[in-house]
Automatic annotation (TrEMBL):
SUPFAM superfamilies: EGF/Laminin
Keyword Signal: yes
Signal is among the record's keywords: yes
PANTHER family for the chain: OSJNBA0016N04.9 PROTEIN (PTHR33491)
GO molecular function: calcium ion binding; polysaccharide binding
InterPro entries: EGF, EGF-like_Ca-bd_dom, EGF-type_Asp/Asn_hydroxyl_site, EGF_Ca-bd_CS, WAK_GUB
Protein location: Membrane
Species of the source: Aegilops tauschii subsp. strangulata
Protein name, per record: EGF-like domain-containing protein
A GO cellular component entry from the record: membrane
């Protein structure tokens, strides 16, 4: 390609000055080469598409048969512009990796569960991906936002979204929180240990006369509450909102529950008043961090032991790390990492490439008195000529002390 760029370039011999279009061509060519160098490192198998729209799809994720590891199939929906990526279930015949929306009218007063719902309407679609990070063994998806909007003191319309995840995915317990918004709301994350009738993950409660106690940015139980995901989130998340008599239904009709990446939602007091405001703020869903791992009774081999035949860490300069995705349910699982001083995709052959540390002086220090030199497994930073020491530790000194120099001079 490089020779192609050069051979098609008109020779500027007729003029001392390059005409502007030619100059632009050269600049464009240079940019193309720089771009190619950035993109040289493959993220998936040869012949496999590596993008859905502008989103990268690195192996083990993949779009076509033969291009993904089992469980990591992604469907690219081109009916959207730009196209959107959805997690496909590992078994297309089962309903896995789905967001389900259930809509129904509920009453807060009936004790008879059969009388609570006047109707129920359910629809499902795939879990949409926002991005995938092989380095961190994480994917981000649009997660469920449940809302309950009162139509009278004891009647409300519930729009409950649930996310069902299957191996090898689970919502990260350390990076997500469950959030509730409403003047009076109990919120559950859908795990077995929390339910409407027993424990709420968190509660927001304001006396009707104290609505002004809600503070922007404060999620401590006054208009907004936040809690860690419970220790047993099961296979999915079902953010739930309690049905309670809403004496403020005329001014504060809606309350919400969602599981969301920490710090992605900032409470704002108008959210207590505006109708259906959170579904408007997160129209495709709230960002949720999903952990993923290689599962299937597989753990990292013990040192000295042969790796399993379907070892996923196929790149040279990569290694395996035991993982705890979904805790007990996916007991034996692992992720692959590039070795120190390498980066890229450990799940494909030759996917981990040497890092040119000299390109990242903020991370890999080399004194301004040193010369940065990349090498495999690290970098060197010898001092410039006439100096001794080590530029990596910042100790480069003149070979002759100043005094000695002065004498020599
Ligand atoms: C993809 O495109 C959307 C909309 O054009 C943009 O907001 C987003 O940042 C892009 N993502 C990447 C990874 O470039
Ligand atoms: C259920 O949803 C369908 C399609 O959106 C709609 O036509 C129907 O009226 C709904 N049922 C009820 C009882 O609201
Ligand atoms: C919170 O911020 C919004 C604007 O984002 C503003 O309208 C509202 O009055 C603020 N609430 C309080 C209690 O300061
Ligand atoms: C809720 O409101 C209904 C209708 O106004 C009433 O009959 C019921 O007693 C109320 N329940 C509670 C717990 O306040
Ligand atoms: C990974 O887990 C397996 C099974 O629990 C254990 O035998 C092995 O030593 C662990 N490997 C590492 C590198 O921690
Ligand atoms: C990894 O292995 C391939 C083929 O075996 C080799 O060409 C490549 O140089 C190796 N890469 C590194 C970073 O060692």
């Amino acid at each position: 390609n490089r020779t192609h760029h050069c051979s098609t370039m008109p020779t500027p011999s007729r003029s001392r000055f390059l005409p502007l279009p030619v100059l632009l061509l050269i600049l464009a060519g240079a940019a193309a080469i720089a771009g190619e160098q950035d993109e040289q490192q493959p993220i998936t198998h040869p012949g496999c598409p590596d993008k859905c729209g502008n989103m990268s799809i690195p192996f083990p994720f993949g779009l076509m048969p033969g291009c993904f590891r089992e469980g990591f199939q992604v469907t690219c929906d081109h009916s959207f512009d730009p196209p959107r990526a959805f997690l496909a279930g590992s078994d297309p015949d089962t309903t896995t990796n789905l967001i389900t929306l259930t809509e129904r009218d509920e009453s807060a007063v009936s004790d008879d569960p059969d009388l609570v719902y006047s109707y129920s309407n359910t629809s499902s679609w795939g879990v949409e991906l926002m991005d995938v990070s092989i380095d961190r063994s994480e994917a981000r998806a649009y997660g469920p936002v449940t809302s309950r909007c009162s139509t009278s003191i004891a009647q409300s319309k519930l729009k409950e979204q649930a996310m069902t995840l299957e191996e090898p995915f689970a919502a990260s317990k350390t990076l997500n929180v469950v959030v509730g918004v409403g003047w009076k709301v109990g919120v559950t994350d859908g795990s077995s240990s929390s339910s409407y009738t027993t424990t709420f993950a968190c509660r927001s409660e304001l006396a009707a006369s104290h609505l002004e106690h809600a503070r922007n940015g404060s999620c401590t139980g006054r208009g907004c509450c936040e809690a860690a995901l419970s220790s047993e989130p099961g296979y999915g998340i079902v953010p739930g909102v309690s049905a309670e008599n809403n004496t403020l239904w005329r001014t504060n009709p809606c309350s919400y529950a969602m599981v969301i990446e920490k710090s992605r939602y900032t409470f704002s007091t108008p959210d207590l008043y505006v109708d259906k405001v959170l579904p408007k703020k997160f129209p495709r869903g709230a960002p949720v961090v999903l952990d993923f791992a290689i599962v299937g009774d597989a753990a990292c081999p013990v040192k000295g032991q042969r790796p399993p035949p379907d070892n996923a860490c196929v790149s040279n300069n990569s290694h395996c790390v035991n993982a705890t995705v979904g805790q007990s349910s996916y007991a034996l699982s692992y992720v692959c990492k590039c070795s120190e001083h390498y980066q890229g995709n450990p799940y494909i052959a030759n996917g981990c490439r040497d890092i040119d540390e000299c390109k990242f002086p903020d991370i890999y220090f080399c004194s301004s008195k040193g010369i940065c030199m990349n090498r495999l497994d690290g970098y060197d930073c010898p001092c410039k000529p006439g100096m001794k020491g080590d530029g990596k530790s910042g100790h480069c000194a003149e070979t002759f002390p100043l005094v000695a120099k002065a004498i020599v001079g």
